[in-house]
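Backbone-to-sequence.
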């Protein structure tokens, strides 16, 4: 196979050389002709494009080329604060919920469809997936962008009302990783303003700034010459452009505007070093960052496009070498990565080398990962590595080309945003496709290898060690530099690529015929029964043009195993993929699948198991081969298993005292009423895992195809699928077992359970979790009532706990519905807050439930939620995944979700009384678990 691959690529290279010659590498890239770009007299830029994915939807963005980097010291955090205020009253949409109330009436949901973010250099607002069937709604969305551009009200009372919300967001964001980052940035970005602005800002300023300070930032920086409007969707572009011009031209041109300064990072010859620690961090790591200037706007030409392909090849090949290290013996690190990491701040990119180390072994981890980078620098990559990377990229490119009509509006807007902010080219995919096809075969291994020599040096180098502040010893700057010196002066051997020529399956397969066919007209599908007892349900679906999905179902899962084997059962599906398949280890298998877009795996859940995967239509036979091997030729590699175990033991060594781990484990134990079947991941868990048990469990679960029902959905004809199903699934052995899952009687605690658990926290923060559950019959009607109730509670908690109280950044409301092993409904609410306010805010959770039980929701609340549910349901239909899910639901639950009587006819008739009645049914007599995790008393 390898010789054939090299010959084919050589021929492609000859053909492509003449095609490549057509491109002037220094010439600018042509703008995508499908994008309408313009600039108004007031300086505002607009981007408009038609796109029908999703159909009858449009997305509206305003991109502001301003962010936290432009704040004065007394404004630290106010760029982000201003982003919040954009939702709290504008000229045409006054009041705290003026915008969101209006949009949610049309199914455009706050959070999911309406949102914003602030970064150091930009602030971006979006209204996404807006129905285009209502022209007035499109006009209204433009008016929202218009107000976000220049007409925020910034009312004193609303500013004060938001201080609490952002203070709680500040608290929520104070995670261990945030605190580590705060120690790293002043060194990584030394003497740069980027090191001083973390976006969320200074808590004292957030609580106490003067109103005018916020307004000063707003009037100085929110202006049309620093803004772009991007509108993409299923509409008439000419009409949309006319509307944009007419509306946004009215925004006044700024007079004597402040210069929008571009900030940078200072280059340095010395190696910088920082050791960042935190008592809540559980793992140690060591990283090397090598900074280099990003390509300037004016040089983002054809050469720039080619260089991005070179870097992609580089990262892929180096990543595969690192993966090999992780599969062998006793790897010197838990995990590692290296390569080009993209932009670190505007104008600067990084080459990054990083390893997650075993405790007290940071030097060994750094040496091992740095050695692989140095090996590339000295000897480069091999021809066979590059040819595999080329083949896979070309195959992926073909697949992307076939599915280009599935590019979402958000993806297109992402390109527009990058173009406006940093001058990234917007290239038509057809142009990129032809360019890449021409240039990839001409790329040489020397070109890719040269990137290491160019970037792997000590200029602008920063070494970062990080990990727990207690119980471990971290590498020092001197020790780290000594490691680099040692590797650079060592006698390294070139990498040897083991190339294998082989077939996935070497024996003849007898197969078995389809003996019965059943039509499923409601799904435009068929059910086939094979001689060996396997059932296959097939539906052709071409919503995604280059995709075929396969799933399956068999009852049993981990429920069939006692506690002595449960740990192994729970990790079997996670470990099995690393072992390889058939006669080949994982790395060899990856090489054999070069040029194939097919992958298959197994899943073993609590009550069932599944074998499935996905492929392109062209590689469907390969997918069937892999599924056959998953049944008949699984691989169990002792060396790989031991390697995985060592990495897992190392990863959990310092986790026992981690507050987040304690919280997660506590919730698991309490919610299962301390069931012995609730196993907590840790040393005791890993001690119970063995490869012998994993093999026994796997061979028992992934066995007997007569007990499996397969589902195949994708852009492939039945006449192509049938013989492949007969050959491969038909060759899997049958034992005619009729298995079922076992109800091990794991239930939550009965009645009311209250827990207050103290944690050793760095940032004072309480986490409140309240869960209601009840064993009760489930129905389609009640399932919809549950989702409506969730939406109503979401709105009310947003209003009363986040906005009126300023008590939390947000309340998470999670509904639950279970059919097996017993029927039940549940509703859980959780949020972070100031520990002193936890009890009061928790009382508001109960207050809203009590109120809904007594009064029910309003019709306006019901209308908002049902409109959102109907919009999202309709939007999901033109996708292969919808039909896969629909058919599976029909077979597993007996419900046809495509039938209007099971959705539209019910949801349109649900009344406020129905939701009130369901609320009473769920919450009256429900089992309640009430938990507060709070800081230890000083």
């Amino acid at each position: 196979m390898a010789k054939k691959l090299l010959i084919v690529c050589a021929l492609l290279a000859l053909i492509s050389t003449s095609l490549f010659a057509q491109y002037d590498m220094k010439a600018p890239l042509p703008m995508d002709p499908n994008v309408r770009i313009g600039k108004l007299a007031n300086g505002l830029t607009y981007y408009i494009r038609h796109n029908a994915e999703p159909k009858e939807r449009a997305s509206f963005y305003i991109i502001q080329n301003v962010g936290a980097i432009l704040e004065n010291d007394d404004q630290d955090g106010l760029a982000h604060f201003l982003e919040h205020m954009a939702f709290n009253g504008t000229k045409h949409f006054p009041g705290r919920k003026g915008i969101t109330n209006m949009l949610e009436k049309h199914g455009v949901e706050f959070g999911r469809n309406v949102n914003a973010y602030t970064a150091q250099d930009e602030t971006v607002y979006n209204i996404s997936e807006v129905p285009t069937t209502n022209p007035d709604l499109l006009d209204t969305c433009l008016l929202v962008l218009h107000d976000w551009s220049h007409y925020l009200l910034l009312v004193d009372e609303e500013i004060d009302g938001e201080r609490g919300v952002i203070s709680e967001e500040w608290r929520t964001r104070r995670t261990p990783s945030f605190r580590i980052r705060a120690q790293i940035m002043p060194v990584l970005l030394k003497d740069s303003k980027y090191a001083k602005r973390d976006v969320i800002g200074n808590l004292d300023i957030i609580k106490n700034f003067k109103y005018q300070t916020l307004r000063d930032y707003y009037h100085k920086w929110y202006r049309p010459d620093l803004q772009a409007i991007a509108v993409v969707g299923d509409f008439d572009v000419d009409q949309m452009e006319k509307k944009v011009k007419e509306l946004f031209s009215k925004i006044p041109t700024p007079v004597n505007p402040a210069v929008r300064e571009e900030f940078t990072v200072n280059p340095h010859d010395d190696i910088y070093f920082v050791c960042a620690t935190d008592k809540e961090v559980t793992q140690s790591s060591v990283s090397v960052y090598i900074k280099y200037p990003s390509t300037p706007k004016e040089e983002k030409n054809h050469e720039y496009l080619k260089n991005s392909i070179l870097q992609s090849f580089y990262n892929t090949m180096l990543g595969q070498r690192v993966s090999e290290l992780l599969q062998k013996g006793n790897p010197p690190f838990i995990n590692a990565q290296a390569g080009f990491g993209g932009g670190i701040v505007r104008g600067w990119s990084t080459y990054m080398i990083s390893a997650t180390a075993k405790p007290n072994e940071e030097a060994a981890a750094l040496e091992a990962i740095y050695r692989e980078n140095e090996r590339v620098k000295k000897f480069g990559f091999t021809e066979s590595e590059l040819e595999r990377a080329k083949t896979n990229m070309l195959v992926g490119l073909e697949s992307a080309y076939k599915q280009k009509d599935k590019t979402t509006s958000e993806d297109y807007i992402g390109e527009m945003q990058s173009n406006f902010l940093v001058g990234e080219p917007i290239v038509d995919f057809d142009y990129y496709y032809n360019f890449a096809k021409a240039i990839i075969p001409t790329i040489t291994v020397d070109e890719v290898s040269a990137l290491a020599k160019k970037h792997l040096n000590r200029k602008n180098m920063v070494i970062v060690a990080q990990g727990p502040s207690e119980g471990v010893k971290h590498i020092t700057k001197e020790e780290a530099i000594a490691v680099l010196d040692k590797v650079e002066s060592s006698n390294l051997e070139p990498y040897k690529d083991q190339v294998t020529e082989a077939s996935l399956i070497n024996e003849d397969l007898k197969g078995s015929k389809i003996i019965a066919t059943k039509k499923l007209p409601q799904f435009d599908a068929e059910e086939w029964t094979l001689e060996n007892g396997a059932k296959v349900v097939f539906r052709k679906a071409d919503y995604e043009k280059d995709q075929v999905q396969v799933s399956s179902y068999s009852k049993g899962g981990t429920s069939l195993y006692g506690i002595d084997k449960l740990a192994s059962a729970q990790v079997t599906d996670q470990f099995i993929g690393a072992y390889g398949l058939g006669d080949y280890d994982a790395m060899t298998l990856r090489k054999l699948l070069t040029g194939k877009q097919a992958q298959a795996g197994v899943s073993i859940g609590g009550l069932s198991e599944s074998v499935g995967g996905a492929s392109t239509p062209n590689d469907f036979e390969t997918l069937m081969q892999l599924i056959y091997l998953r049944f008949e030729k699984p691989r169990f590699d002792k060396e790989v298993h031991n390697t995985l175990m060592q990495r897992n033991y190392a990863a959990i060594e310092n986790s026992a005292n981690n507050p987040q781990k304690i919280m997660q484990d506590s919730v698991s134990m309490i919610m299962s009423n301390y069931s012995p079947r609730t196993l907590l991941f840790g040393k005791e868990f890993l001690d119970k895992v063995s490869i012998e048990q994993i093999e026994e469990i796997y061979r028992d679960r992934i066995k007997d195809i007569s007990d499996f029902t397969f589902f195949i959905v994708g852009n492939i004809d039945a006449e192509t699928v049938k013989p492949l199903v007969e050959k491969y699934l038909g060759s899997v052995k049958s034992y005619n077992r009729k298995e079922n899952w076992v109800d091990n009687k794991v239930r939550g605690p009965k009645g009311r359970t209250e827990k207050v658990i103290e944690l050793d926290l760095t940032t004072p923060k309480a986490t409140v979790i309240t869960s209601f559950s009840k064993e009760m019959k489930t129905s389609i009607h009640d399932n919809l009532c549950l989702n409506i109730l969730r939406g109503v509670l979401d709105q009310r908690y947003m209003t009363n706990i986040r906005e009126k109280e300023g008590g939390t950044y947000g309340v998470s409301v999670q509904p639950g519905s279970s059919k097996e092993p017993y029927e039940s409904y549940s509703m859980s609410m959780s949020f972070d807050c100031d520990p002193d306010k936890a009890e009061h805010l928790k009382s508001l959770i109960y207050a809203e439930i009590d109120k809904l039980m007594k009064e029910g929701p309003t019709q306006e609340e019901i209308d908002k939620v049902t409109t959102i549910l109907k919009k999202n349901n309709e939007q999901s239909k033109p996708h292969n995944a919808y039909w896969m899910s629909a058919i599976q639901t029909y077979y597993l639950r007996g419900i046809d979700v495509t039938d209007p009587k099971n959705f539209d006819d019910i949801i349109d008739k649900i009344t406020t009384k129905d939701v009130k009645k369901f609320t009473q049914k769920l919450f009256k007599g429900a089992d309640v678990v009430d938990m507060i995790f709070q800081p230890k008393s000083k």
